[in-house]
Amino acid sequence: MTDRPLLWFPQPQPASRSKLQSAPGRVSTPSHERQGARVSIKLSQLQEAFEARRAELVRAAAGVDPEQVLVIETVGAVEDFAKAVKKIEGLEWLGEIEVDELPPDEDFHDLKDPEKPLKGRLYLVLTNQQALNELLSLWRHYKDQDDPKLKFDTGLTKFRDVFCHLLDIRRWGPADRLLETGVLDVWREELNDPDLQNRPVRFEAELWYRDSVDKRAESESVVRGLVNSLQGQVITSGVIPGIRYHAVLAELPASRIQEIMDAPETELVKCDNIMFFRPVGQMTSGETPVDDYAEALPPRSEEFPGGAPVLAILDGMPYVSHQHLNGRIVLEDPDGWAEDYPASERVHGTTMASLAIHGDLGENSAALTRPVYMRPIMRPDARDFRRPRREVIPTDSLPVDLVHRSVKRMLEGEGEQPATAPSVKIVNLSIGDYSRAFMQSISPLARLLDWLSSKYGVLFIVSAGNQLEAVPLDMTLDELEQLSQSDLERKTITALLMNARSRSILSPAESINGITVGSIHFDACVDAGVANRFDPYSSALPSPVSSFGSGYRRSIKPDIVFPGGRQWYQKPYIGRQAVSLSVSGSMAPPGNKVAIPGQTASTDSTGYTRGTSNATALISRAAVHCYETLSGVIDATATAGYDDSYTAPLIKAMLAHGCSWGSIGSRLVDIISEQQSIKNPVSFASRWIGYGLPDIGRVLECTEQRATILGFGELSDAQAHLFRMPLPPSLSSVREWRRLTVTLAWFSPIQPSNQKYRCASMWFEANNPVANQRREAASGNSGWQAVRRGTLQHEIFEGDWAQPFVDGDSLVLKINCRKEAAAIDSPVPYGLVVSFEVREGVQLPIYQEIRDKIRIQPAVPVRQGPII
């Protein structure tokens, strides 16, 4: 136990929730007459398209009133439109999507800035002919009246608001199902690969989720019939009501896929039961290095771990016979994959386990004292003819279904079998979907992680994803070789910034409840220069392979960054043409030193790897250290009122609490500021480094000059808690630099069919007279808004003036909660971490004074439940 352990806040006081202020911009809309004319044309086109498709379907199934999906696009949002939709028989609400950057025109534009892109919504509604007729009747009622604000019948007034802001209305068609998922590119690649072109092509068809069990069964039956009619088959299907997910995994002969590529207007592609077609086999850890580099490392004399695992890794199969992993992993292989998973190809799971257990082997850190639970969800790709093959989620599984079953088996149990690792509080997921870069809609896998974290109280730590494409530089090789290392760094960063839109975080990194981790270009390796490779940087900056955010609804993503190894590049060989920097995938240094199986499956081989997967595994290791610290503090203080539901939110807050931008942020903002096209360099930097680089040691113990205090509670809509931190008397009227750091974390329930998605919005406010200058809130001047959009709020405040206060004065923190996407069914647990400090070496007993004042305050109220 440290001499200065973390402290606990006393009982928070109930309070009324603060009101949020907002000043949305005003948008010019068309006149009633103009809107009537333009929308009437669109509705006529919709009616014709609906009738044409209906005629096709009726011929195929006489006596059936077919249902079709409508896309209703508005400028701005019409809240609670779903309630109005449910008032019309035959209409079924499917969901809504937020749209950014709608181009302004003479009909719709911002009144203050006519050139400013607008925001909008896509409302997705299932309708039959009867319901469409009712919708058209409502439109005629709106169009024909002189007063556009005249009320509709009870419950239908939202249709009036939609008509006023309507931009477009159309059917959901083949282009929607195919174009934005990357499936056509993957199909084209497979059809052109001579080793794959004669094999059946597998794909996922994500269906519109229907509330009715019978409707879901009917929908799946229709899709199965269409697949069978094309000489294909459905491999499996999955339904998860908690995230409104329904999908089938199917395969078709290559010739049939080619027909779809040539003429997409086939019955399968036009099927109104299908929302998206998605490729399979793209959920991977990235490319596996194929060189034979390996170093032997002598065994380390450390005790084997004990106790129950708190960290789980869902990844590839680890090489458990490796001397650095043997006896340290609880391996769960319920599907028996080990039998045909060669030891030499157990690369990624082995490296992730090595980093989580030992850290970077180059740092010679102590191993975790608990075993790590591992469940393989990736296997060698049967379509890859290299050795070792890349590891992917197998093409005979739906990724969402596989992850769901894995977590449920671990934490709840499966069938008659009890949970295999109910003690787990942290889950490492260092994989990403290379066909699904985050744009605007949250992916099914991210929805799953959010739902599971809220349901089970477990923290998912997710990699932001690696971008392995070449980096184009606007210069020749000769010009490149003339650059100083500092100028090369600046040119590389600039090239990455200009391509940021195509280097977005990969699903499921947009998860709002998880911690998303980016990579910093740093490691403990001594340089080992190779003639044909070079370092594009001169300092520790975001790795050139680390993906850009933001997250859902412009929330902070990635949340944090951590050293994931230095990524060197291959030296170009073309002298007179513009060059591109290509990733060097070697196991040779530099990078994080890790255990590897090597090509001969030796038990002592090590190599060097790099990327966001590494950073994620290292943060997962840090999360275990946070757990151990938290466990020790609870045991030592016998904290009343604490139960297991607060553990994961507190770990989440602890991981981010030591974050700051430091020199990384300063250097990055300096380079970004040179780009005239980027209006807010600080905000743009946050899309790459989030809250910054965490100093984990700061949150594991206190110092004489720094006190760190933990708090917890649970809140429902319109509730708030007040925490009081005693101010140290020795600082009164003293002109001395001081810093206040506040981190709040929770797991929000979700509502997948609502664009707001997050059910529980929480935020803190600080009545802070002693350090009230906001130093770091990611995204610059608007950072106070950005940090409130997710489920992790982290801010740093500073001051240095002589502020008088009397003995007994406190700094008051208010934690607020309000419902957002839907009602909060049960109180939501949260974790709070607060640090107050002065400069190191200043002779002020900050820790002792705060500790002594807290001890005489009322204790935390008792709440029954298990403790750690």
TrEMBL record:
Q: What biological processes does GO assign it?
A: proteolysis
* Disordered, as annotated region: 1-34
What residue stretches are annotated with the Peptidase S8/S53 domain? 311-628
Signal sequence residues: none
Q: Name one GO molecular function term.
A: serine-type endopeptidase activity
In terms of InterPro entries, this protein maps to: Peptidase_S8/S53_dom, Peptidase_S8/S53_dom_sf, Y4bN_pept_dom
- Pfam families annotated for this entry? Peptidase_S8
Which branch of life, at top level? Bacteria
Protein name (database record) = Peptidase S8/S53 domain-containing protein
